[in-house]
Batch of 3 targets.
Target 1
Amino acid sequence: MVDDQPPLPPTLADVAELAGVSRQTVSNAINSPALLRPETLARVQHAIEALGYAPNRAARHLRTGSSRLIGLRMSPAQEFTADATMDRFVHALVEASREAGYHVLLFSGGPVVAGERPDLLAGYDALLRSTAVDAFIVTDTYLGNPQASWLAERRAPFVAFGRPWDDETSGHPWVDVDGAAGTRLATEHLLERGHQRIAWLGWREDSRLGEDRRAGWEQAMAARGLATDGLAVRVEDTLDAGWTASAALLDTAAPTAFVCASDTLAIGVLHTLVARGLRAGPDVGVVGFDDSQVAQVVPPGLTSVRPPLEQVAVELVRALRRLLAHEPHQAEGVLLTPTLAVRGSTARG
Amino acid sequence: MVDDQPPLPPTLADVAELAGVSRQTVSNAINSPALLRPETLARVQHAIEALGYAPNRAARHLRTGSSRLIGLRMSPAQEFTADATMDRFVHALVEASREAGYHVLLFSGGPVVAGERPDLLAGYDALLRSTAVDAFIVTDTYLGNPQASWLAERRAPFVAFGRPWDDETSGHPWVDVDGAAGTRLATEHLLERGHQRIAWLGWREDSRLGEDRRAGWEQAMAARGLATDGLAVRVEDTLDAGWTASAALLDTAAPTAFVCASDTLAIGVLHTLVARGLRAGPDVGVVGFDDSQVAQVVPPGLTSVRPPLEQVAVELVRALRRLLAHEPHQAEGVLLTPTLAVRGSTARG
DNA sequence: GCGTCGAATTCGATCGATCAAGTCGCGAGG
DNA sequence: CCTCGCGACTTGATCGATCGAATTCGACGC
């Protein structure tokens, strides 16, 4: 087989020669077309077209200092619990970035050594030092995660998906989903369908995210003057925990519906119902949180709070561009309201 | 707020000065340490450490022509059917790339204009022209997809996840999962559990991927001398199609088990069973394909063929490195054998 | 003592773009 | 008539690394 190399892409100089102008003029034709006489502009554009020219990203990056790349860390599989949301989010982010002229660079947190706490920062550090990306999107803003403060210390540009729970004064831009509004929506939906004894199945008390979501349920119940005593349980975010806890709750408090902090927990409830011969929907209402792929396909369809990830992505990129342009950002961040995807698990007979 | 910029990262020259050597020596310390005298090497490394130096990627890219970036196209949500596999694959790819010193750059296929067929190639073209990535991983190798041949024409380096179904002589490296082996495994598993009338629920006949998977079922049945007449149905890859088709099949052929071409179809079968008051597992065995997140959590757990995506990613990156090093590659590609994730849907009472 | 060889290190040019500072031509203003 | 200003375009330097070739240095043989 002949080892024929791909043809070398044309450079600015090639275009300049063909159009009979200087390099800088071609550069201007691309970056500030208003500077050129219409006639010259047309000639240059024609040459660009003819050669199929596109600026070399490396050269541009070197000179301008901007790679037009946004770094996103993939959380390793271990941390990966109910986060089936990630895929939809990555999609949305790639799309929003593209519209702003950016690409998404994925990286991981370095090798996971058994028995050692993985170094969450290694990946960020390497990319930062080598000026590989213009900015980061940080997604794991749970309590005690050092990423945000570490990045802020280094003055690295980043935007967080998730509120800075641990530090109200951190002052970096963020975008988040209003969890309380979501569960309020879920609870009101169940109330409308005639449920009164609506249980909360959530996470441990030290999860700010979980407590935020719980608050929405609490508020909606309180607004109707309904008691919540004995109707709330807090467990780990696993299928089994949801299974066990919902079974216990059915025995002790006889709820007719469950609002859950995650789809994972909600699926656990569905397991319990299947095991007891109860029908999700007609017999017991169930609402999850995340609107994961699972919610869409599990029989009979899981009603779930749907985070507006497309909007989140757009807002994140918007905040990023402001940040990179050194425009001041809203200190308060952006809070977006989820919707409710209604399915069989809240249908009445 | 003071607009304090992040400190400028140190350059090669800074390190050289601190270590009292020339720039080139520092470069050698990084790229060919064997060239240096141990004592000099130590001095340079110390300086690198002290300054926290990492080579500027843009400069390196410009000079060497290699960005150490692998391009991966996110298929738009529309094309996204049962492909919940994507997330696991992306994870695996990021990890395998990292180990080889690469990062993954995500892009999308350009704006989806209503009424127009999206241009699958636009994204590839732009990245290729601007020399933004060293190579591509192509994932949608279904029949009639122009990506592979288009890239090959331009001599763009790429490796395919998926066999070149439409062109046996295409000659580019590829890695794929042996679908027939997977369904053979699934069928044998059901046979061992005592099933005899095992149905096939698959895709349309023009899907080579689907026919490959179907062949495995056929082979396993034939090996036991079992008839397959009337036990195979081919439908679209949707939940509803799986639901409807499995219901019809139960009525006409009374199978005791289903092997499905996808988890989506298998979940459709589960719906049918729920609707009829049949228990997945004890009453009717069901096996899916993909081992998606859904399979893991849907009650009572869906037994599913699990593609070895981590292995796939490793082989893809391996092939890519060979390709970029201009080493000859196996014309035949790499075919990997899936495993079977056994869960409740094939448990016997 | 001198030439030779190879290991270790240095020097200058270069990748392809943009920045900063020019040059050129032309028309208006003094 | 000359200058000034301004629009349109050009020129040389630069970003930070690596490539290719040149240079220094010490050891060794004769």
Note: Residues 69-177+309-336 of chain A form a domain with the Rossmann fold fold (CATH 3.40.50.2300).
Target 2
Amino acid sequence: MTKQSNLEKIRHSLAHLLAMAILEKFPKAQLGIGPTIENGFYYDFDKIQTDQINLPELEKKIKELIKQNLKFKKESVSPAQAKKLFNKKPYAQPYKLELIKDIQKTKKPITIYKTGDKFIDLCAGPHIKSTGEIDPESFKLTKIAGAYWKGSEKNSQLLRIYGVAFENKKSLDEYLEKMALAERCDHRNIGERLGLFMIDEQIGKGLPLWLPRGFAIRKKLEDYIFELERENGYQHVLTPHIAKEDLYKKSGHLAHYKEDMYAPIIIDNDRYYLRPMNCPHHHSIYKHTKRSYRELPLRIAEFGTVYRYERSGVLSGLIRVRGFTQNDAHIYSTQENLESEIVNVLNLHKKVFEDFEIKDYWYRLSLPDFKNKEKFGDVKNKKIWDQGSNILKKALKNTGHKFVEAIGEASFYGPKIDIQTKDLYGKEDTIATIQVDYYSAQKFDLSYIGKDGKEKPPIVIHRAIFGSFDRFFAFLIEKTCGNLPLWLAPVQVKILAISENQDSYAEKILKELKTAGILAEKATSNETLSKRVREAQMQKIPYLVIIGNNEIASNTISVRSVKNDEGVMTLENFIKKIKTEIEK
RNA sequence: GCCAGAAUAGUUCAGUGGCAGAACGAUCGCUUCGUAAGCGAUAAAUGUGGGUUCGAUUCCCGCUUCUGGCUCCA
């Protein structure tokens, strides 16, 4: 372990105390690992009775341990000593023994930590000096979950107990408060409150239905990106959502991706699959005619709806679904143009994120892990992968983007640049992706005629700026907590007449706003003005237009935005104001 | 898929082994109001299939769906 902050030491020490508390209650418990994580810590256990775990009770126990001011003592031990320590009959610690073996392989020294005189854990540390340094009110055990030993599904599943911990009670309370507030901006809650989308059990899990207001927003996203792509030389296409089995044999999806695909529809002896990706359809379009180097780079784009049979436990709102629409495109490029094309794509991403005022994102270079035979097993030509990885790396460097490398995160057909962000609760997610693919040309027999008159394989760039409309939409809703910028708002203006007496004037204003291309609605005057203002505010409608006798007399309107009272103005000026804001 | 928790009206929640309750929303009526909740009435629910029981929304089991993790992933 490298240098750690004091808070990390506290968190790690709390993990040890959690294990200690568990062992007191369940002497037969077997310990896995207990590291620190963002905001806290966890510890994995085996051989304990889940139904007997009571988190508040455990918390109490840990607080008692803290108050005993137990010392943390580090000791270096030989492998033999370590094995003996964790092989005490009758309750040996097999997981610790496995870890000792792993450490031996690395030839690193083995260290243990003693807490008080009862508890010993295999641990590199560092820790605080004694439990007295922990504020007993500064932590909270939060949840119980299952987790596979060493992160592999093939291993046994352990029981993981999570906790959050901070320097003091105040910071803990602030964190808990922040989480509670985050829930209010959760796209699932806002989606329900504002009537944006729904999911129906009868239709199927992970298959969202877009309601009128949600669709209004989505349509604007589509229009925005459609225009931008067209300006940047993309050609849009539309292709079917299903295809015959042979296509997916050829693409490698049935070999690598079958688990994530819906089972085939069998009809007239043919097997049709719902498509999990759009690439093969676009390759078919590429192949439709003979291509010349003059046509390249050829940029084929589609709002492509795909279906993936995601495992049931992973589905979540619009973030992880089984049917979604990608803002997809495939760029067929020559080797010479490849880097500049990737730079183009990177720049396009940058523009989009600027337009949406998205700042908290970072680039991840996702590379293959050749040890993972299942995913990258038929990769015979490592050189080609390296070539792809290097060109992505170079493009990132030359455009001055900082990035992190992630081994094993590549797609089965190539390395990629993923654009990562964090959700409300601090969880990492991909919102956009750029992939380099040297394989499809060969698999699909794609080619172009080069300057020299010879056939050559194109290199395919897969890219999705919005990732999927669904996820990007969710991300936007959460980022703005439902207060979308004016140009995206499904209802931009709500007109409130103070009483029915002003109804016809309100109607006239409504018509004129609509004619001006502004999304406006009129509220019925059956409720008090205050109530209608409140309702509109809760619906996150950017502008309210209020009309009473004063406005009629002066032929003006009274405007109120989410943030403040904009005062009285003429309709023309209001329309001008709105249009300027939308333009921006 | 696995681990843990949950499912009561359109929504958010309460409650009970013996007639299921509120708030908001909806509908209807009254009210016509100057910037975040006017008044009244009406309609509306125990996810689903089994079991235990005289009787189950409540207890038990299966399924479905949701939430949080793990693996996976746009």
Note: Chain A is about 35% helix and 25% strand.
Target 3
Amino acid sequence: MKYQTPTGMRDLLEDDLELFDKILKNAQKIADFYRFKKIETPILENSEIFEKGTGAFTDIVEKEMFSLTTKGGDRLTLRPELTPPIVRAYIENGMQALPKPVNLWYAGPCFRHERPQSGRFRQFYQLGFETFGAVEPVIDALIILTCYAVLKSLGLKNLVVQVNSIGCSSCRPYFKKTLTSHLKKSLSSLCANCKGRLKKNPLRILDCKEEKCERIKKSCPQILDHLCKNCHDHFKALLEFLEPAGIPFSLNPYLVRGLDYYTKTVFEIVQESGKSQGSLAGGGRYDDLVKLLGGKPTPACGAAIGLDRVVLLLKGSQEKKEKQERADVFLAQVGDLAKQKSLILLESFRQAGIDLAQTISKDSLSSQLRTASKLEAQFSLIFGHQEALKDQIIVREMSSGRQKTIALAKAVQEIKKRLK
RNA sequence: GCGGCUAUAGUGUAGCGGUAACACUGUUCCCUGUGGAGGAGCCAUCGCCGGUUCGAAUCCGACUAGCCGCCCCA
């Protein structure tokens, strides 16, 4: 095969698209209920918003972005995630003046240059919720609840929210120092990757899955013990909202996430049991990002759901039903004159709201009727040269084979009556 | 970026050194204006390039892609 989709990118055919549509529909309802407004942003953005927003030392920015330079010299990047673009849009469209909180939701493709595997593509689809202008921990709970509700509405089982707090700009630097000095003691036992992380982003070491590092992690100071009072109270309050909301959650002190902008709450939703394919959704609070990207200091919180992964799970759970394509009525035509008059006839049925199928490019009557059978049409309209000359048409009841000739002008009316 | 496995019609498979087979789908015909059944035909330069060989879908090597792990995340 000469041409195929680029690595990690695929065509979405009807089977997939139906599931995507279903998720989107459910999300739309839930978003409406919780008063989120939909937003769409460009697929290309100025590279800087990711370098600053997502973070220069994140894997995403260091090695996973599809970037290009325009003829005019602008550096653009295919969005690897949507939070920084949404923040950009929030500022650019003057939403800072809107009554708070401002709730936005979105769905669309993102791009990351990674090695594809199960549930991971270079072009993948995210659906997310963002809320601006509220510091209250109940908002964090609401964002989690909203994501959880979307996943739940699709019938997914065994969902668990893993939560953690990674502190804020006033307490995290201290923790980083504490952690770094602790880790320096066992520097030689860290994996190569983490040795590098020690300077750039020591928190990420907590997230390392290498066995070596796993062992060291156990003896590490935990961030939850080093939060400032504000962060501590925020986290405690969040948990007190989740509990009665009936959302199953577990504390994961090692959850730090790979994006730089998070403050306080971070969370991921995973499906327990069954094959793990990474998280289904993830998000958190990002109180400093709006300011970082040039807006007024604005607290914010958001999350995104990985649609591809959800679709994968939905596909696995539903048994394949070969859905038969069907039609109520089928038009079979024979001869040039009949074919010429067929288009206007089709239009009159379409306008009357009657499902009239055809294979108008075909000439053979038998093959057309074979198709009519396959479509399980109740009636076929047979429009031959003789009928076309006299402006008549044959109505054939497929089950019995009884047929009668009627005036062409009465075809719509006749079929309407018979279908009842 | 690093590993493991794989690559034959649209789909699912067989073939394991002597120039492609089966099922389903599609399509044409048997039936120059009447379907559901039946029958016949057609639809593949065996992922790409190179090597070994008298001969390669089959063996070997590189490439490309896919799947699955790692990493990371959604």
Note: Chain A has a mean pLDDT of 91.
